[in-house]
Amino acid sequence: MTVGQNGTIRTSLDAITWTSANVPGLTATLDDCTYFGGRHYVVGSIGVILSSENASNWDFESAGTQTRRRTITTNGVHLVAAGENGEIVVSADGDTLLDSWEVTHFGSIQLWGSGRRSGER
To answer: How far apart are CA 52 and CA 74, in angstroms?
Structure first.
């Protein structure tokens, strides 16, 4: 899966043939994506967090702020997204059907990358 400007989401099973996903009305720049608990997740500008079971039909998640989220990853229990203004949001319930997110701020720093320890899936 790749994501980009103007709500662009592209998926491929073989990295040769690509399919576009359409999220009606979405014009945000999308910055990162991950897969966790049987769902795909995408983050981007204006606070966007999207989720999908099939990478074709997307649901908007709400973390309560409009802060751009540049990266998303999982520790195997929670999803963690980070971005501008030092904001980190964590799936509070650890559930893949995210009812709530916990928001933490670390000042005005910009957070652009995420990862997991070596050996984790």
So the answer is: 16
Domains of the chain: 2-105 (2.120.10.60)
Token pair recorded at residue 67: 């802060």
Q: Which two tokens stand for residue 86?
A: 């030092």
State both tokens at 1.
């899966």
Rounded-to-integer distance, Cα 22 and Cα 10, Å: 9
Q: What is the DSSP letter of 73?
A: E
Tell the residue number behind the tokens 């994501």, with chain if given: 3
Other Cβ atoms closer than 10 A to 83: 24
Contact 5, 29 (CB under 8 A): yes
Lowest mean pLDDT among 13-27, 35-49, 54-68: 54-68
Which one, of 87, 91, 83, lies nearest residue 39 by Cα?
91
Say how far apart CA 73 and CA 100 lie, in whole Å.
17
CA distance 77 to 25: 31
pLDDT (tens digit, 9 = 90+) per residue, 88-107? 888 865 554 444 566 665 66
Using a cut of 0.90, tell me whether the model's pTM lies above it: no
